[in-house]
Amino acid sequence: QVQLVESGGGVVQPGRSLRLSCAASGFNFTDYATHWVRQAPGKGLEWVAVISYDGVNKYYADSVKGRFTVSRDTSRNTLYLEMNTLRVEDTALYYCARAAGQYTSGPPCDHWGQGTLVAVSS
Amino acid sequence: SYVLTQPPSVSVAPGQTAKISCGGNNIGSRSVHWYQQRPGQAPVLVVHDDTDRPSGIPERFSGSNSGHTATLTITWVEAGDEADYYCQVWDSSSDWVFGGGTKLTVL
CA-to-CA distance for A96 and A76, rounded, in angstroms? Predict the structure, then answer.
């Protein structure tokens, strides 16, 4: 069955960097776009970034553009989110989610991981 | 940027019908997806492309979309339906947008 397992979260000081990973299994990683979505404590869902099935197209929310980078390693079936210049407002549970199709626009997220918690604090 | 507006909360008695709205400018021209998030759990897709249900989602969950409002309807509400519900659309200028979420309380 489809599984997505996030890791890499933790406590980090403002201005520092962190890399999140999402290990995918149970499906052909290169056939689907994948997203990062975050949820601040007690708040709603916020879309962060998406990468297309072929890794060519990447899009970001304005709140993270220029600071976060999404990438993947198809040999490891793993999605990454490199987060630089972290801010207190980046504190959230970060989910990776598989799109129900190849492209970055249109298909919903049909499978989600359980999330990894990032806390940005001095 | 494109904005989706949901009521913060909806309350319904067991066995009744819950309707959760999602407002957006001309949202009827877009495909709307709905997610259920139970406390402490990851979101689950319950309706996609306005009206379609993924496999395993009960027929009690249905969606509609017209004009400036999309609606998620849950008939014969059960205690297990108590959760936060989010609508989502794709927008060419904003990319992916979520509504603020609606907390469904089963009385």
Answer: 16
Residues of A in contact with B95 (CB under 8 A): 47, 50, 59-61, 104-105
> Which of B43, B44, B54 faces A45 most closely, judged by CB atoms?
B43
Show Cβ contacts of residue B51 under 8 Å, excluding neighbours closer than 6 positions: B62, B63, B64, B65
Q: What is the DSSP string of B13-40?
A: -TTS-EEEEEE-TTGGGS--EEEEE-TT
The alpha-carbon gap from A12 to the nearest alpha carbon of chain B, in Å, equals 23
A59-87 tens-digit pLDDT: 999 999 999 999 999 999 999 999 999 99
In this structure, are strands B44-47 and B61-66 parallel, antiparallel, or unpaired? unpaired
Segments in chain A below pLDDT 50: none
- Hey, is A97 helix, strand or coil? strand
Neighbouring C-beta atoms of residue B38, cutoff 10 Å? 13
Query: Mean pLDDT, chain A, as a whole number?
Result: 96
Interface test with B, best of A5, A6, A112 (most B CBs within 10 A): A112
Q: Which residues of A touch B35 (CB under 8 A)?
A: 45, 109
Token reading at A121: 């604090």
- Helix (H) / strand (E) element for B53: namely none
